Inverse folding.
């Protein structure tokens, strides 16, 4: 079974592939963010670690606009056409051509809420939504329209899917939980429904990089064939099996991004992977709860991925 067959077999209800797929993600040095250098670095990383699909890191964030200091200023957030996305589109095109026959190729897609944070900064993002959500929504609409054009062009280039990253529903983010439903969810869903309609392999990533979550219930109806999130919640941890049941889809994760995968010995990494896989649901991808720190030794990741690949064969031996 090749990597494409392995990953797509995971999406079929019932049963489980004989091999547990695995993948870890990290940001490369800025020298490898654009052009042929980015394509080659992604391919080098994919082949060195042995992971089961290519995940393209998105490194072309929306420009900061310091003049947006009031909610009313959000009306001035511009629409970005495809010319703005020229560099990441070149990377997508190059990696689809180079790797798609061998493995699924997906791309990080930051949510409109996260792109709004790049534009105005986290402080003003949260404050303005709480002060005047109607004014903020004008900017959110422009951001979503910009991302929609980019997404549709990526689909035309042949991407298999997206790693749709969302924030905004964390514990304590807003003084009123309803603000998430008003200023975050509609824009998330506009993009996620489009990629889910057009692409067969999308991973819903509930990102706790900024803040932790009390629970994940508000995301259970979000699109995506696979869910990836931290299992550490402020109300207490959950298991990978519980997450898979909650979302009714395969779960990806199990490893902490700053845990043994970063600094453990080879045997410690193998032991940790075996423990995670032993407690995993049948349809499961070994991965981390978010992006691994860039200083990680790639050999650690290769060892973890190899341990996942051999786990079910060793278990049945």
């Amino acid at each position: 079974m090749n990597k494409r067959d392995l990953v797509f077999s995971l999406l079929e209800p019932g049963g489980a592939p004989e091999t547990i797929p695995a993948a870890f993600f990290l940001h490369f040095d800025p020298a490898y963010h654009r052009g042929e250098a980015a394509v080659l670095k992604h391919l080098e990383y994919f082949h060195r670690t042995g992971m089961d699909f290519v995940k393209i890191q998105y490194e072309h964030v929306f420009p900061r606009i310091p003049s947006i200091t009031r909610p009313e200023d959000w009306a001035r957030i511009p629409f970005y056409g495809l010319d703005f996305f020229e560099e990441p589109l070149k990377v997508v095109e190059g990696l689809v051509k180079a790797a798609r026959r061998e493995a699924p190729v997906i791309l990080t897609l930051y949510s409109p809420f996260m792109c709004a944070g790049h534009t105005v900064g986290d402080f003003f993002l949260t404050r303005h939504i709480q002060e005047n959500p109607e004014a903020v929504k004008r900017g959110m609409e422009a951001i979503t329209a910009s991302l929609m054009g980019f997404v549709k062009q990526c689909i035309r280039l042949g991407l298999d899917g997206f790693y749709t990253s969302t924030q905004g529903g964390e514990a304590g983010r807003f003084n009123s939980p309803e603000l998430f439903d008003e200023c975050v969810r509609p824009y998330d869903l506009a993009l996620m429904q489009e990629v889910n309609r057009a692409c067969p392999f999308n991973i819903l990533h509930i990102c706790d990089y900024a803040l932790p979550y009390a629970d994940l219930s508000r995301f259970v109806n979000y699109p995506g064939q696979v869910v990836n999130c931290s299992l550490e919640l402020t109300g207490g941890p959950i298991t990978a099996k519980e997450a898979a049941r909650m979302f009714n889809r395969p779960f990806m994760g199990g490893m902490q991004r700053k845990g043994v995968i970063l600094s453990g010995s080879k045997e410690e990494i193998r032991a940790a992977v075996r423990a995670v896989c032993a407690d995993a649901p049948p349809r499961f991808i070994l991965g981390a709860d978010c992006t691994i720190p860039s200083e990680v030794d790639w050999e650690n990741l290769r060892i973890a991925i190899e341990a996942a690949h051999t786990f079910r064969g060793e278990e049945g031996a």
Q: What stands out?
A: The chain has a mean pLDDT of 96.
